[in-house]
Amino acid sequence: MDKKRFGILAAASLIQNAYFKGFFTGKIYQGAAKNICVPGLNCYSCPGAVGSCPIGSLQSFLSGLKFRFPYYVVGLLLFFGAVLGRAVCGLLCPFGLLQELLYLIPGVPKKNRFPGDKALRYLKYVVLVLLVVVLPLCFALTPFFCKYLCPSGTVAGLLLALRDKLVRAQLGGIFLWKVSLLAIILGACLFLWRPFCKYLCPLGAIYGLFNKFALYRMDLDKESCIHCGKCARACRMCVDPSQSPNSPECVRCGDCVKACPAKALKLGFRRKKTEPK
Amino acid sequence: MKKNLPALLTLAAAVLLIVVGIFQGQPTQVLAKAVRICMECVGIG
Lengths: 277, 45
Known about the structure:
The structure holds two protein chains of two kinds. Chain A contains 16 helices and two strands. Chain A is mainly α.
């Protein structure tokens, strides 16, 4: 992993979970910073969380007894998306960091390209539409994604259960389901790079839609490109940056930029006048 | 530098939505949900 990006990702994860006291007491932060949603997937019931989860907040509006359009949360998602696109995943998401750390464990063969990978990528859009929007709208007070899928919430549950007897006493079948799912996702991280981001994350599905025009973007200098294919081989999200530098799958890790011998790829906020895509 | 119109329009829409949300008191609703342990999120149900 690139040291600079790792530093940013680690710092962002720490800042978003800076209520360290919570990890020891099993109590969550209750201050005013929770008025604001953080950009990445970070459960607001995590003992360290100092901000709110955008997906959890979105579902709380959509599954409310009285429907109110979530202007504020949608506005924040649009803001993060327009500025960073899926760079949020690559630079700011704590669950992304956890997955990447597990991928670094040696001794397990890494396999990011396999038949069916492309089809599985569409799953995250199904999760977004069905579990985050449609089902919470149909069944009041049930945030389906948080309740049945979100691995960040499961990590929060495990951390709370370690310290809080009351939480521990209430764990049941749903927790068992969520822990099993978390174990599968974390197990998959040993040989797949960011499987949750690739196949299941609704936040990644949202931010990916902004990659084409977000302020933070990738530029390809077609005249400098020597079509060696090194960028595509370096990409663990299986994107070919020489064909689609702003693919919705790109989490802006920058591995392709480093792999390019012709320096044809640039990642950042600056935008060139002649842009191919 | 070329102007990135779609991003700027999206940012303008984002700011507008955030302001409307703030006037409707939505950050308080976000806070109210976030300061209590979310039973569904942590797997209690």
